C-alpha cells in the first residue's frame, strides 16, 4: 500500500507514530552513549540517590535492632525484590545476610572502598624494615577470593556492645542533629553469568566501635533495576504513556477538525466537477481552510452563473432561429411547385439542410429548457413502469423490439417531465445507433436506490469515448455521419434531466455488444 493512497487523517496519525518512534530511537541511542562509560556513569545519578536512601534505611534499621536480628533485617530488605543483601565488616571480616559470591573484578572495588590504611591500626607505622603484615586468612579473605561462605560456616555476629550513648565523633553528632549521612555507592556488572552488584558504604551505627571496622552493604541481583530496588521503571513508563495519551487526546480532535473540513471541500469540489453548482461548503472556520471553503463557494456561484448564462444564451439563440427557419421552410414550400428537373433536386438538398438546422435548434431548445428548469419542480413519486412503456410507445418502438423487466409498482422520486424527457432521449439514441435491435429495459432496487438500465445491441462506444459521452455536442468518431451522428446533445439532455431529479447517469459497453445507459434515482 503506497502512502499516497492513504487518506490524510491516517497519514497524520502515521507521522505522529513515526515521531514517537524517532524519539524512542534517540532515547535508546542516548542510553547507549551513556552506558558506553559503564553503569556507574549512566545510572550513577539515578541509582546512586536510591542507594543512598537504602543505605540510610538500613543504617537506621541496624541502629534500632539488636545485632542478633541484623541477619534477618538484611534478608528481609532484599527478599521482596528478588535480590541478595549482605553486610561486610572489615577488619572483623564478618558477613551477615544472604550468601553472595563476589567476582574477581568486584574485589578491587571492595578493597578500594576499604583500603588497609583505614583499618583499626590506622596511623601506626610498620616496624623498621618491615611492611605491614598480611591479615589472616579467615572468612572475609575466602569471601574476597571468590569462595562463597556456607550458611553453617559463617562467623556469628559479634555480641552486642553497649557503647556510649550516641556513638562517637562526627557520626554521633550527625545523628543527634538528625542530618542524613552521605554514603559512598557503586553499581557494576560483573561475573559469569553476569550479575549486577551495588555497594553502599555505611557509617558505624550507634554503639558500633570504630575499631571494629567499616561497614559495606553489598546487594546482588540479576536485573539492572534490581527489580525496582535500585530504581523503579514503572513511573517512567507511566509518564511516557501518559504523555503520549495526553498528546493523542489533544491532537486527535485537532486533526479530525482539519481533515473533516478538507473532506467537506473535497466533496463539494467533486460535486462541482460533476456539474452540480448548488452545493456549498460550511464556512465556519476563520483560518486558511475557511478561506478555501469561501473560495470554493464563490467559484461554485461563478460557475453556476456562467453556465446558466451560457445555456440561457443558447436557448435565446435557438428561440430566435425558429422564426427565420420557419419562414425559410414556408418559402421553400412556395418555390417547390414551380421548379422541376435539376432545380427541384437542388431545392430538395436545401430542404434537407434546413431540416438538419431545425433539428439542431430543437435540440438546443430542449437542452436549454432542461438546464434552466432544474429547480422548476420538486421531485415526486413517479411510477416507473408506466412511464417507460409510455415513452417507448411515443418513440414508435414496436412491441417486438423491446422487453421491460422491473418489479410491479416500483416508484422513484423524480420530476415527471424531466424523467420522461431523459428516458425518451435514451430510447431515441438506442434506435438511432442500433436500428432494428431489441431494447432491454430493466430496473433493480438496492439500498433505497433504483437503477434503471436501457441496453441496445448496437456497435457500442470506444472505451476512450465513454467518459465524454454526456458532454454537450460531443459525438463519437465512428458516428459522425449525418444519418446517424445526431447533434451530440441527446445524452447531454439526459444527464441534465436526471441530475435535476437528484440522480446520476452513466454508460458502459455490454459484453455481448451494445451500450447500457444506467439511471440511478432515489426509491419512493
What features would you describe in this structure?
With 524 residues, the chain is α+β, with helices and mostly antiparallel strands. It contains 12 helices and 12 strands. It has a 5-stranded antiparallel beta sheet, sandwiched between helices. Helix 1 runs antiparallel to helix 7 and helix 9 packs parallel to helix 12.
Features:
524 residues; alpha+beta; five-stranded antiparallel β-sheet; 12 helices; 47% helix
- Structural category is alpha+beta
Strands of the biggest beta sheet: in what spatial order? 2-1-5-4-3
Number of extended strands: 12
Strand percentage: 5-15%
Brief summary of the model shown:
The protein is 47% helix and 15% strand. The protein is α+β, with helices and mostly antiparallel strands.
What is the secondary structure topology, with strand pairs?
Layout: H1 8-35, H2 39-64, H3 70-78, E1 84-91, E2 94-97, H4 104-113, H5 139-144, H6 169-176, E3 185-190, E4 195-202, E5 213-221, H7 234-273, H8 288-335, H9 342-372, E6 380-383, H10 384-394, E7 402-405, E8 411-414, H11 416-433, E9 439-446, E10 449-455, H12 490-500, E11 504-509, E12 515-522
Amino acid at each position: 500500500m503506497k502512502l499516497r493512497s492513504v487518506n490524510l487523517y491516517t497519514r497524520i496519525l502515521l507521522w505522529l507514530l513515526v515521531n514517537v518512534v524517532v524519539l524512542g530511537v534517540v532515547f535508546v541511542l542516548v542510553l547507549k552513549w551513556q552506558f558506553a562509560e559503564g553503569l556507574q556513569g549512566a545510572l550513577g545519578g539515578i541509582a546512586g540517590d536510591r542507594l543512598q536512601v537504602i543505605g540510610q534505611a538500613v543504617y537506621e534499621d541496624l541502629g534500632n535492632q539488636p545485632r542478633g536480628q541484623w541477619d534477618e533485617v538484611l534478608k528481609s530488605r532484599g527478599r521482596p525484590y528478588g535480590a541478595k543483601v549482605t553486610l561486610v565488616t572489615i577488619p572483623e571480616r564478618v558477613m551477615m545476610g544472604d550468601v553472595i559470591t563476589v567476582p574477581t573484578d568486584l574485589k578491587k572495588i571492595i578493597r578500594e572502598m576499604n583500603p588497609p590504611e583505614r583499618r583499626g591500626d590506622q596511623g601506626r607505622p610498620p616496624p623498621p624494615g618491615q611492611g605491614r603484615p598480611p591479615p589472616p586468612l579467615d572468612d572475609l579473605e575466602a569471601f574476597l577470593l571468590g569462595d562463597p561462605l556456607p550458611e553453617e560456616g559463617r562467623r556469628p555476629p559479634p555480641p552486642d556492645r553497649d557503647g556510649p550513648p550516641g556513638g562517637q565523633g562526627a557520626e554521633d553528632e550527625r545523628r543527634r542533629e538528625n542530618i542524613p549521612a552521605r554514603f559512598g555507592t557503586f553499581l557494576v556488572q560483573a561475573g559469569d553469568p553476569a550479575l549486577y552488584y551495588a555497594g553502599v558504604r555505611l557509617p558505624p551505627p550507634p554503639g558500633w566501635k570504630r575499631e571494629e571496622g567499616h561497614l559495606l552493604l553489598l546487594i546482588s541481583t540479576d536485573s539492572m533495576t534490581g527489580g525496582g530496588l535500585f530504581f523503579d521503571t514503572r513511573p517512567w513508563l507511566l509518564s511516557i504513556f501518559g504523555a503520549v495519551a495526553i498528546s493523542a487526546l489533544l491532537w486527535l480532535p485537532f486533526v479530525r477538525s482539519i481533515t473533516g473540513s478538507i473532506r467537506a471541500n473535497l466533496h463539494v469540489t467533486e460535486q462541482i466537477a460533476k456539474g452540480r453548482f448548488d452545493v456549498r461548503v460550511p464556512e465556519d472556520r476563520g483560518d486558511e481552510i475557511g478561506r478555501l471553503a469561501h473560495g470554493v463557494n464563490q467559484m461554485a456561484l461563478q460557475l453556476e452563473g456562467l453556465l446558466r448564462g451560457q445555456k440561457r444564451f443558447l436557448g435565446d439563440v435557438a428561440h430566435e432561429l425558429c422564426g427565420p427557419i420557419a419562414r425559410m421552410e414556408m418559402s421553400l414550400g412556395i418555390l417547390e411547385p414551380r421548379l422541376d428537373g435539376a432545380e427541384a433536386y437542388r431545392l430538395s438538398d436545401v430542404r434537407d439542410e434546413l431540416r438538419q438546422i431545425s433539428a439542431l435548434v430543437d435540440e438546443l431548445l430542449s437542452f436549454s429548457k432542461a438546464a434552466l428548469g432544474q429547480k422548476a419542480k420538486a421531485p415526486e413519486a413517479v411510477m416507473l413502469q408506466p412511464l417507460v412503456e409510455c415513452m417507448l410507445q411515443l418513440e414508435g418502438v414496436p412491441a417486438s423490439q423491446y422487453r421491460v423487466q422491473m418489479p410491479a409498482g416500483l416508484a422513484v422520486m423524480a420530476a415527471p417531465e424531466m424523467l420522461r424527457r431523459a428516458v425518451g432521449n435514451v430510447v431515441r439514441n438506442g434506435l438511432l445507433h442500433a436500428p432494428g435491435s431489441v431494447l432491454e429495459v430493466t430496473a433493480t432496487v438496492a439500498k433505497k436506490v433504483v437503477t434503471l438500465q436501457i441496453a441496445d445491441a448496437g456497435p457500442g462506444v470506444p472505451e476512450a469515448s465513454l467518459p465524454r459521452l454526456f458532454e454537450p455536442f460531443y459525438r463519437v468518431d465512428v458516428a459522425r455521419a449525418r444519418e446517424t451522428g445526431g447533434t451530440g446533445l441527446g445524452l447531454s439532455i439526459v444527464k441534465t434531466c436526471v441530475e435535476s431529479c437528484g440522480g446520476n447517469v452513466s454508460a458502459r459497453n455490454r459484453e455481448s455488444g451494445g451500450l447500457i445507459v444506467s439511471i440511478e434515482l432515489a426509491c419512493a
